Amino acid sequence: MRGKPSEKPENRRNSAFLLRMVKRAGQAGGQSDRLLVSNIRNAVEQLGGQIVGVGLNKAVYVNLPDGREVVVYPTVGVPTSITLHDATTNAPDRSVAVVYDPIGLHPSWLGHLDWLGSHVRGARWVKASEAAWQFADWET
Fold first, then answer.
1. DSSP β-bridge partners for residue 98
2. SS3 57
3. Neighbour-count burial for 45-70, b at 16+ CB within 10 Å, e otherwise
4. With contact defined as beta carbons under 8 Å apart, do 29 and 38 qualify?
Protein backbone atom coordinates (compact mmCIF):
# COMPACT_ATOMS: atom_id res chain seq x y z
CA MET A 1 0.00 0.00 0.00
CA ARG A 2 1.35 3.41 -0.94
CA GLY A 3 1.02 6.66 0.95
CA LYS A 4 2.30 8.12 4.15
CA PRO A 5 3.34 5.63 6.84
CA SER A 6 0.65 7.04 9.12
CA GLU A 7 -1.97 6.12 6.50
CA LYS A 8 -1.10 2.42 6.49
CA PRO A 9 -3.74 0.27 8.21
CA GLU A 10 -1.23 -1.31 10.60
CA ASN A 11 -0.06 2.14 11.74
CA ARG A 12 -3.64 3.27 12.31
CA ARG A 13 -4.22 0.14 14.40
CA ASN A 14 -1.02 0.75 16.36
CA SER A 15 -1.96 4.40 16.90
CA ALA A 16 -5.41 3.41 18.12
CA PHE A 17 -3.88 0.82 20.44
CA LEU A 18 -1.39 3.32 21.87
CA LEU A 19 -4.10 5.91 22.36
CA ARG A 20 -6.14 3.36 24.33
CA MET A 21 -3.07 2.50 26.43
CA VAL A 22 -2.35 6.17 27.15
CA LYS A 23 -5.96 6.68 28.17
CA ARG A 24 -5.76 3.63 30.45
CA ALA A 25 -2.58 4.96 32.02
CA GLY A 26 -4.40 8.17 32.81
CA GLN A 27 -7.42 6.29 34.11
CA ALA A 28 -5.27 4.43 36.62
CA GLY A 29 -5.30 7.65 38.61
CA GLY A 30 -7.88 10.38 38.79
CA GLN A 31 -9.00 13.18 36.54
CA SER A 32 -5.75 15.08 37.17
CA ASP A 33 -3.75 12.12 35.84
CA ARG A 34 -5.89 12.03 32.70
CA LEU A 35 -5.42 15.76 32.16
CA LEU A 36 -1.65 15.50 32.47
CA VAL A 37 -1.44 12.55 30.08
CA SER A 38 -3.70 14.41 27.66
CA ASN A 39 -1.48 17.51 27.93
CA ILE A 40 1.59 15.41 27.20
CA ARG A 41 -0.05 13.78 24.19
CA ASN A 42 -1.24 17.14 22.82
CA ALA A 43 2.17 18.77 23.31
CA VAL A 44 4.04 15.92 21.62
CA GLU A 45 1.60 15.69 18.69
CA GLN A 46 1.65 19.47 18.25
CA LEU A 47 5.38 19.15 17.56
CA GLY A 48 4.96 16.25 15.16
CA GLY A 49 6.16 13.64 17.64
CA GLN A 50 4.29 10.65 18.92
CA ILE A 51 3.58 8.61 22.00
CA VAL A 52 4.95 5.14 21.37
CA GLY A 53 3.95 3.39 24.56
CA VAL A 54 3.26 3.39 28.25
CA GLY A 55 4.97 1.48 31.01
CA LEU A 56 5.29 0.88 34.69
CA ASN A 57 4.99 3.71 37.18
CA LYS A 58 2.90 5.76 34.72
CA ALA A 59 5.81 6.10 32.28
CA VAL A 60 4.85 7.52 28.89
CA TYR A 61 7.35 6.77 26.11
CA VAL A 62 7.66 9.59 23.59
CA ASN A 63 9.46 9.99 20.27
CA LEU A 64 10.16 13.61 19.40
CA PRO A 65 10.04 14.66 15.73
CA ASP A 66 13.83 14.44 15.36
CA GLY A 67 13.85 10.84 16.63
CA ARG A 68 14.97 11.53 20.18
CA GLU A 69 13.27 9.41 22.82
CA VAL A 70 12.05 10.74 26.16
CA VAL A 71 10.48 8.83 29.03
CA VAL A 72 7.88 11.10 30.61
CA TYR A 73 6.49 10.68 34.13
CA PRO A 74 3.31 12.68 34.75
CA THR A 75 3.08 13.73 38.39
CA VAL A 76 0.00 15.04 40.17
CA GLY A 77 0.56 17.42 43.06
CA VAL A 78 3.90 18.68 44.21
CA PRO A 79 6.73 16.67 42.67
CA THR A 80 9.57 16.01 45.05
CA SER A 81 13.16 14.89 44.94
CA ILE A 82 11.79 11.38 45.49
CA THR A 83 9.74 11.79 42.28
CA LEU A 84 12.92 12.78 40.47
CA HIS A 85 14.85 9.88 42.00
CA ASP A 86 12.19 7.34 41.03
CA ALA A 87 11.98 8.66 37.46
CA THR A 88 15.74 8.43 36.91
CA THR A 89 15.97 5.04 38.63
CA ASN A 90 13.11 3.60 36.56
CA ALA A 91 14.65 4.79 33.28
CA PRO A 92 18.42 4.63 33.65
CA ASP A 93 20.47 5.84 30.69
CA ARG A 94 17.42 7.46 29.12
CA SER A 95 16.30 11.03 28.69
CA VAL A 96 13.67 11.61 31.40
CA ALA A 97 11.07 14.30 32.08
CA VAL A 98 8.80 14.73 35.09
CA VAL A 99 5.71 16.64 33.96
CA TYR A 100 3.67 18.45 36.58
CA ASP A 101 0.93 21.05 36.75
CA PRO A 102 2.23 24.19 38.49
CA ILE A 103 -1.22 25.76 38.88
CA GLY A 104 -2.04 26.21 42.54
CA LEU A 105 1.43 25.38 43.79
CA HIS A 106 2.79 27.76 46.38
CA PRO A 107 5.48 30.13 45.03
CA SER A 108 8.04 28.70 47.47
CA TRP A 109 7.44 25.20 46.02
CA LEU A 110 7.80 26.54 42.49
CA GLY A 111 11.07 28.22 43.47
CA HIS A 112 12.29 25.00 45.04
CA LEU A 113 11.40 23.00 41.91
CA ASP A 114 13.25 25.49 39.71
CA TRP A 115 16.27 25.26 41.99
CA LEU A 116 16.12 21.46 42.16
CA GLY A 117 15.78 21.21 38.37
CA SER A 118 18.81 23.41 37.82
CA HIS A 119 20.98 21.44 40.25
CA VAL A 120 19.94 17.84 39.58
CA ARG A 121 20.53 16.76 35.99
CA GLY A 122 19.17 13.19 35.97
CA ALA A 123 15.73 14.29 34.82
CA ARG A 124 14.04 17.54 33.95
CA TRP A 125 11.00 19.18 35.46
CA VAL A 126 8.50 20.14 32.77
CA LYS A 127 5.50 22.33 33.52
CA ALA A 128 2.47 20.85 31.75
CA SER A 129 1.55 24.26 30.36
CA GLU A 130 5.04 24.58 28.80
CA ALA A 131 5.48 20.99 27.64
CA ALA A 132 5.36 21.71 23.89
CA TRP A 133 7.96 24.49 24.26
CA GLN A 134 10.25 22.41 26.42
CA PHE A 135 10.00 19.28 24.26
CA ALA A 136 10.62 21.38 21.13
CA ASP A 137 13.87 22.59 22.69
CA TRP A 138 14.82 19.20 24.19
CA GLU A 139 18.47 18.29 24.35
CA THR A 140 19.73 14.96 25.61
1. 73, 125
2. helix
3. eebebbbebbeeebbbbbbbeeeeeb
4. no
Q: Alpha-carbon distance 86 to 56, whole Å?
A: 11
Rounded-to-5 percentages of helix, strand, coil across the chain: 55, 20, 30
Torsion, Cα of 124, 84, 108, 129 (10° steps): 40
Q: Can you tell me the distance from the alpha carbon of 114 to that of 47, in angstroms, rounded to the nearest whole number?
A: 24
Q: CA 74 → CA 9, 11, 13, 15, 25, distances in Å?
A: 30, 26, 25, 20, 10
Q: What is the pLDDT of residues 100-140, one digit of tens each?
A: 988 888 999 889 888 888 888 788 889 999 999 999 988 76
Helix (H, G, I), strand (E, B) or coil at 52: strand
| Helix spans in the chain (H) | 9-27, 31-47, 81-90, 107-119, 131-136
Is-above-0.70 flag for pTM? Answer: yes
Handedness of CA 66, 70, 73, 79 (dihedral sign): negative
- CA end-to-end span of the chain: 36
